[in-house]
Amino acid sequence: MVAIATKQAIDFANFYKQMNQSLAKYAVPLFVRFIENIELTVIQYS
Questions:
Q1: Coil, helix or strand for 21?
Q2: pTM for the full model?
Q3: How far is Cα 33 from Cα 14, in angstroms, rounded to an integer?
Q4: Helix then strand then coil, % of the chain, to nearest 5
Q5: Helices (H) and strands (E) in the chain, counts
Q6: How many angstroms separate the CA atoms of 41 and 11, rounded?
Q7: Cα dihedral 31/19/15/41 (nearest 10)
Q8: What's 26's DSSP letter?
Q9: Within 1-46, where are the H helices?
Q10: Mean pLDDT for back-to-back runs of 10 residues, the chain (46 residues)
Q11: Residue from 35, 39, 36, 18 nearest 27 by CA
């Protein structure tokens, strides 16, 4: 699964093509999740 935070339209044909060209077959995401923002956890070291 991949999570995408964007407000722009996505060309799924191009997305699929790029994933297949760039990633190993087992690493191509089977599910795409669209979210409003990506939550981050920040760890501060003293």
A1: helix
A2: 0.59
A3: 17
A4: 30, 15, 50
A5: 1, 2
A6: 30
A7: 60
A8: G
A9: 12-22
A10: 88 92 94 88 83
A11: 18
